[in-house]
Amino acid sequence: MPNANSDSVFSFFSGAGGFSYGFTQAGLRPVSAAEINVDACKSYEANIGSECHTLDLSITSPEFFSKIAGGKKPFVVIGGPPCQGFSTAGARSAKDPRNKLIFNYLNIVRELSPRWFVFENVEGLLTSGGGEALASLLREFIAIGYSVRVQKVNLAAFGVPQTRKRVLIIGNRLGADFEFPDELYSYDSGKSKKDNGKPLAPTVLDALAGLPTPSREKGVQMNYLSSAPINKFDASMREGNDEGLVTLHAENTSEADRILFSLLKGGQTMKDLPQEYWHESFARRAFRRVADGTPTEKRGGAPSGIKRLHGKLQSLTITGAATREFIHPIQNRSLSIRECARIQTFPDRYHFMGNSASVIQQIGNAVPPMAAKLIALHLKKIDGQFGSGLKTNGSLRAPRLLGYVLTEAAGMSEALTRTRNLLDSFKQDFLSKAH
Question: How far apart are CA 70 and CA 73, in angstroms?
Fold first, then answer.
């Protein structure tokens, strides 16, 4: 059984290992992982090379993992508790039992006492329970000795070829102040966009470059479109794929759907089709308007329908429905699983276990490895400023809320305003106690 040390990573709610894979790419060492889904745990072990325990973390004692750590404190604990209770893709409720898993993560951090933790979740966390869920979680992290910063980020700014909004909470028990990694790219998926003066993030066509036309049969291994990588992103995806073969690259679009898809231009959706082509659930909700302040359990999800990706922009967010909903930017067909994996920045050598439905769900739920690597490198750089054996002294401040970024938009919804007010009050309380 491996012992934890200063470069060790413990991963929880690990999924197929996207988060951990990024940390390995930054030179850190995964020691142990835990995930309730059997297929995802097998995918993790096949690619990360360390043990993944198939466990229900809502009932597993955190002491189980401190024994694996061998009494040593890890460099970092990472994880993204299941987000269905918060997700804007479904009814959100503060009473959803799945939301309690965020506090199971907290208990594990308390037990293992890592130097750092990184907590990832969907943006619905920011307003769940009127902001109380987030505020309570931050209070507890600070109470167990961590200085924390929370920020909504769009991972496209870190080089991921899709706009993917996520909430990150990062904390350390070193008493050190820190900022989030700098944005490296501008982005535009049609739905989300930002021009920060940086170059545009890799586009959909950049991400898919080098892949051949998909097979019509599952299980077929294919050669790349060319022997040499077509661009920098293609080269990064081919790295480590010693056999040079592409897997999980099939599609079975019907002829009727091909005709339907041909009616859409890049960036267009089902709403741009004549209404006779709309399916029932889309027609029912296409023009739905939800007033700000509507109870989360009554909001429902966004209308589901086909969307043709724009080749010269970033993709929309990859989810477990991407192979059903997303159309290739040029060809009249759905995306293959491998194409979705690339847009999520999983390299072509990455092997996923389970049937097609399981695999696409694993991919859609993952933290993109490219973003995870950037975060890991950033933490190593910050931590290195203090040395590996830092001891709290007068130059380091007490655990506190370092800051928060809830939105980059000019306006703020009533729900988000409530959260901001809670955190403002919360931060002032700490400042008052400090003086």
Answer: 9
Backbone angles phi, psi at 328, to 5 degrees: -55, 145
DSSP 8-state assignment for residue 312: T
> Residue 35 and residue 365: Cα distance in Å, rounded?
12
**303 token code pair:** 């209308």
- Token digits for 295? 């109870």
83 is catalytic: yes
Task: Compute the mean pLDDT over every residue in the chain, rounded to the nearest whole number.
Answer: 88
State the catalytic residue, choosing from 41, 52, 83, 340: 83
Ramachandran category for residue 409: left, alpha or beta (phi over 0 → left; psi -120 to 50 → alpha): beta
pTM: 0.89
Detail the DSSP E strand segments found in 262-305: none
User: One-letter amino acid identity for 59?
Assistant: I
Q: Torsions phi, psi of 47, nearest 5? A: -110, -30
Secondary structure element (H or E) that encloses residue 343, with its range:
helix 337-343
Q: H helices within 114-262, ranges in order?
A: 132-143, 204-208, 232-238, 255-261
Domains of the chain: 8-196+369-434 (3.40.50.150), 204-365 (3.90.120.10)
- Residue-level length of the chain: 435
- pLDDT tens-digit profile of 212-238? 999 999 999 999 999 999 999 999 999
Distance of CA 343 to the CA centre of its chain: 12
Phi-psi region of 298 (alpha: psi -120 to 50; beta: other; left: phi over 0): alpha
